[in-house]
Amino acid sequence: MSKLMRNVLLLAKLETTPGNDAVPTAPLNAMLARAITPQPVVAEFAERTNIRPYFGTGGQVAVSQHSECELEIELASSGAAGTAPAWGPVLQACSFSETLTASTDVKYAPITNNPKTVTLYYYLDGVLHKMTGCRGNVTIELNARAIPVMKFKFTGLYTPATDTPVPTGAVYSGFNAPLAVNKVNTPSMTLHGISAAMQSLSIDMGNQIVYRNLIGSESVIMTNRKPSGQTSIEMVPVASYAWHEAVRLGTLNAFSVVHGSVAGAIIQIDAPKVQLISPQYADSDGVAMINLGLDFQPNTGNDEIVITVK
User: Fold this and answer.
1) Residue 17 per-residue DSSP state
2) Could you tell me which residues come within 8 angstroms of residue 164 by beta carbon, excluding any fewer than 6 positions away?
3) Does residue 55 lie in a domain region?
4) Mean pLDDT for the chain overall
5) Of the N and C termini of the chain, which has fewer Cβ atoms inside 10 Å?
6) What is the pLDDT of residue 5?
7) pTM of the prediction?
8) Where does the chain have alpha helices with state H?
9) Is residue 225 very low, low, confident or very high in pLDDT (cuts 50, 70, 90)?
10) What is the 3-state secondary structure (H, E, C) of 100-167?
11) Domain that holds residue 29
């Protein structure tokens, strides 16, 4: 019987112990994703090189296997200030802390030690793929006249697939409709103290995720973080800001973007120290733009990028 690609359900739940199945459920842990690309088995092979008196391959032996999954989730607030968004668990599995201040905001900041892990269940029309011990990376994109989105890539421990019906009762009420990126909904973006007319923004947390399979140990760990980004903004006179000199001198300054204007629907991204790299001119509708690479650096540590939902 044919399987339908639209009959898909994704569940995600934070684990208490890394690698132990958190057993997510449809009513409590459904993830509303606009794209899901699983790789159920990512295997490493060792070639058998036995010598025989004739040509031919000797075959290969699978020496390790894990799973990977890429997904896209709309960047939208929870609808109530101080309430965590439904996508909080998958962001925490990308080495972010979650700090709630009642009736005020929820802050997500990068961490170094003991990042959390998540269990992912991917149902494809009656076939269930489980990934445990997942850690990942996230890229945030805000492009003018588009829906803001978070793009995740997770690596997790492999579990054999099973024939399991897609559960009913999935609840998506924690996922609000996103606000389009435009002048009304994205009121401000400042870079190095300049209010810029921004066309696009991409922030890649640069988490370095490693799958390890050793004698007596199997895990997914994070070994480093190198956040970077790209933005395209309208050119300004040199008297307003000399972008090229800032690049040449390695100037460090702050960055901030605010998306949303009503309490409960605001997402703010702040970075204390951003270095500008690789400036390039570009044309957008006949308007001169400058494309800038962004190097996000920590100030006191674990603060390169802070996401506030409020």
Assistant:
1) S
2) 123, 126, 127, 128
3) no
4) 97
5) N
6) 87
7) 0.96
8) 26-29, 88-92, 243-249
9) very high
10) EECCCEEEEEECCCCCCCEEEEEEECCEEEEEEEEEEEEEEEEECCCCCEEEEEEEEEECCCEECCCC
11) 8-45+66-309
